[in-house]
Write a structure and sequence with these properties.
Strand 1, helix 3 and strand 2 form a beta-alpha-beta unit. 43% of the residues lie in helices and 18% in strands. The protein has 334 residues and is α/β, with parallel strands linked by helices. The radius of gyration is 21 Å and the shape is globular. It has two domains: 196 residues, D-Maltodextrin-Binding Protein, domain 2, CATH 3.40.190.150; 100 residues, Periplasmic binding protein-like II (D-Maltodextrin-Binding Protein, domain 2), CATH 3.40.190. Strands 1, 2, 3, 4, 7, 8 and 9 form a seven-stranded mixed sheet that branches. Helix 3 packs across helix 10, helix 5 packs across helix 12 and helix 7 packs across helix 12. It contains twelve helices and nine strands.
Length: 334
């Protein structure tokens, strides 16, 4: 993918303006010409084993191949992904720290937190989206005899607050997906936040929680083994991975938004040439046939072909889209 940051003259004027204002340190300016010269740290704002972590580890070898430097994955969970994201927003803009963030870190967090410590638009530079994440609602098969969406809805409506759902943190996509689902069916359940997607799935399998939303591929083995049951997918069409699982429309569930996407972001003042080169590295990885096949195997289609500018506009649109949905759900994180 070619960089799309304007003409060289425009880039030079931008750098001169930054230098005059004292916003870029000399070391950052020197680094641009031969970046990268050292390993690059990718912060994952969730614990190991979840979708955000697994997906960047799939991409990392090809990104590293393109850039000629290794990637170091740094899991920093907490605050529904806001702790790790804030860490990167406040890191030096030298091109050696990025965050593999999500819809929950940006479009959802902007409305969910009254005192969000960073501004997703002002404090982060959008680099490139990585994958789109449709979800499935899965239930535990322990401790109750629920076998379809109608029975789940009936049980939740008949027992306000009795049952529990899990997610990988307050404000995470799984949290908002369940909150939107409950709002649409007029029911109540208790949210139990965990530090990672793998912990949430373990809680579902043990019966500690009764339902959750997550990526198709992460729940498919447990659906097939009978330890969990996927009741419906939130996409408009059935997934080839789970052809026996209906869409929400087929299951008779009122429509609600439940999806995510993942993407790479840098500190806001990261020089544009570095942002563009990292975007090209992500594009290289996403276009790799083996990488694309792996993502399609877990039901998360890759998102190649985006410029940083297009991705930045998309993030702004998602903030506008999700603000009213978050407020309507009643979910708050502080």
């Amino acid at each position: 993918m070619r960089a799309s940051s304007g003409s060289p003259a425009t880039g030079r004027r931008s750098l001169l303006a930054f230098t005059a204002a004292g916003l870029l340190a000399p070391s950052v300016l020197r680094a641009q010409g031969n970046w990268p010269t050292q390993p690059i740290r990718i912060v994952v704002p969730f614990g190991p084993g979840g979708g955000t972590d697994v997906s960047i580890r799939i991409l990392a070898p090809k990104i590293s191949e393109f850039l000629g430097q290794p990637l170091v994955i740094d899991n920093r969970p907490g605050g529904g992904s806001t702790v790790g994201t804030d860490h990167v927003a406040k890191s030096p803009p030298d091109g050696y720290t990025f965050v593999h963030a999500t819809l929950s870190s940006t479009g959802i967090a902007a409305a969910l937190y009254r005192n969000l410590p960073y501004d997703p638009v002002r404090d982060l530079a959008a680099v490139a989206p990585t994958i789109y994440v449709p979800l499935t609602l899965a239930i535990s098969t322990r401790g109750w005899d629920v076998r379809d969406a109608a029975a789940l809805i009936a049980a939740l409506r008949a027992n306000p607050g009795k049952y529990q759902f899990g997610s990988n943190g307050v404000g995470a996509t799984g949290h908002l997906a369940c909150a939107n689902f409950l709002a649409r069916i007029g029911a109540q359940a208790e949210h139990v936040p965990y530090r990672s997607g793998s912990q949430t799935i373990a809680a579902l399998l043990s019966g500690e929680i009764q339902f959750m939303h997550d990526i198709y591929g992460l729940l498919l083995p447990h659906h097939q083994s009978g330890q969990a049951r996927c009741l419906f997918v939130t996409a408009e069409e059935r997934s080839p991975l789970m052809p026996d699982v209906p869409t929400m429309a087929e299951a008779g569930v009122p429509e609600y938004k439940a999806y995510s996407w993942f993407g790479l972001f840098a500190p806001a003042a990261t020089p544009r040439p570095i942002v563009n080169r990292m975007a090209a590295a992500v594009e290289h990885a996403l276009r790799d046939n083996a990488v694309a096949a792996r993502f399609n195997e877990i039901g998360t289609p890759p998102m190649p072909g985006w410029t940083p500018e297009r991705f930045a506009r998309y993030v702004q649109d998602e903030i506008v889209t999700w603000g009213p949905l978050v407020r309507a759900s009643g979910a708050r994180a502080d």
